[in-house]
Fold this protein.
Amino acid sequence: MNGESKIKINMKAPLKERKFWDVIVIGGGASGMMAAGTAAKRGKSVLLLEKNSTLGKKLLITGGGRCNVTNNKKDTRTLLSEYKGNDKFLFSAFSKFSVEDTLNFFNSRGVKTKEENEGRIFPASNKAEDIFNVLYKYLGESNVTIQSDSPVVSVTKEKEGEYFVVKVKKGETVFAKACVIATGGVARPETGSTGEGFTWLEKLGHTVIAPDLALIPIALKDKWPKKLSGLTLPDIKITTFLDDIKQEVHKGKILFTHVGLTGPTILNMSRDIGELLKYGSVKMEIDLFPHLDHGALRAQLQRLLVEQSNKKLKNVLSILIPGSVVGPLLELASIDGETFAHSVKTEDRKKLVDQMKSIFLSVKGLLSEDKAVVSSGGVELKEVNFKTMESRVVPQLYLIGDVLNVDRPSGGYSLQLCWTTGFVAGSNC
Ligand SMILES: Cc1cc2nc3c(=O)[nH]c(=O)nc-3n(C[C@H](O)[C@H](O)[C@H](O)COP(=O)(O)OP(=O)(O)OC[C@H]3O[C@@H](n4cnc5c(N)ncnc54)[C@H](O)[C@@H]3O)c2cc1C
């Protein structure tokens, strides 16, 4: 991580040097870094405990390493309509730290941003590391003490209820007036998010909805899509079928992997597909040309075949669709791509158009938590005061980021939740 070498932070201060803190933040991901820096800026003594040897492991892989940092819905009500029914809880926190505040936070610290499809905002550099570096610097400027390689094993409240007792695996114990739990969910456990926070929170009296994976790539039964691994189709229509009965229609971008499909549209469909799989076999129909009906596409293909009449069919098709799709498409339609354009029969042209408008894929299942992007589940929202992010069950305990049971789609909404809840907790703890 380049950023770490540039910024001097007390990464390995022995805990014994100081035992009592105003605030202990557990978890150095997006939300924990935001909360720790914000609390320390207010003059609080802050200890940030992280089990990994470095901070922000998950943040650095967000958006395929590009970090979809937020979504450009500046009107808070419009933004919150994406957080499926949780807007009534989230409104007070988001009115304190909005999308605009997020953009100001990063832009004013030197990160230029750009907007892509559906309002997704990324750093203009396409580097998640730039986002990480801002937060890392924020911790340094505000004098947060960071203790990495420190897995917390328990969080309890001392009998009289005045301070928290936080035990770290190596045997050290530290104490704080306020404690922020920012340990994340259970998606991508290799980044450190393994759900320990939920165990302590339950013991402290919170209700934890069992984590369930929410945004997950899809594995396919068909073998041929493997050949398309790495290919992105930016603008297609997908219709799902349960036992051949039509279910839902989605439009957007998909990405082929070596086992199936991913990309924003697929991730957002994954929960519903998981549900459908409980009841039968699931198929997906892909329309490569959602904006053209059969007639218009037939006319377009016909025009090309006339213009390029001395070329082979496979070469003409690659003007219309990505080259890697041509072979599989011809195979599915059982048509010889070596035929010259001038000799393609009417029935084959029709077959090709039908195939481009309707490629069926059979879903094998959802991939496991090591591939999921977010997990739903977490602490019941009614147990948190969203004006401050303080627990309504345990005073001075603050809950932020993926620890909360907030269902949301892909598109920058997860990180926005981290910035907002992290900032609000840091401002109040
Ligand atoms: C591949 C991938 C891509 C994603 N892309 C995007 C995107 O582009 N945009 C978006 O909005 N969202 C994205 N997300 C979701 C987003 O990354 C998460 O919602 C967000 O990072 C959660 O932050 P957090 O601070 O709550 O938790 P995490 O980032 O999970 O951080 C929790 C931290 O707590 C530490 N920890 C856990 N237990 C302990 C313990 N016992 N002791 C000490 N430390 C502990 C962990 O090591 C970890 O560092 C993506 C997720 C994945 C997996």
The chain has 13 helices and 20 strands. The chain has two domains: 2-213+373-428, 217-367.
